[in-house]
Design goal:
The protein has one helix at about 55-65; strands spanning about 25-30, 45-50. The protein is α+β, with helices and mostly antiparallel strands and about 70 residues long.
């Protein structure tokens, strides 16, 4: 998950309108020019590790929406 804009600082939890409970995932995205044929190897042109998961994504969306 990439942050394209500033996420507001957390407020006091007592005044929270939305609370997310769940697990956070770490996604690995590897970019290649073409899918390899079975048994072949393909060089990656980019590699990224991104935080994600349903709860993390939903909480970020809520923060962006205000």
């Amino acid at each position: 998950m990439r942050f394209w804009g500033a996420v507001p600082a957390p407020r006091d939890a007592a005044g929270a309108e939305v609370v997310g409970v769940g697990e956070i995932s770490l996604d690995r995205r590897i970019a290649v020019d073409a899918l390899p044929t079975p048994g072949a190897k393909q060089a990656a042109r980019a590699d990224a590790r991104l935080a994600g998961g349903q709860i993390a994504t939903a909480m970020l969306a809520c923060a962006r929406l205000g």
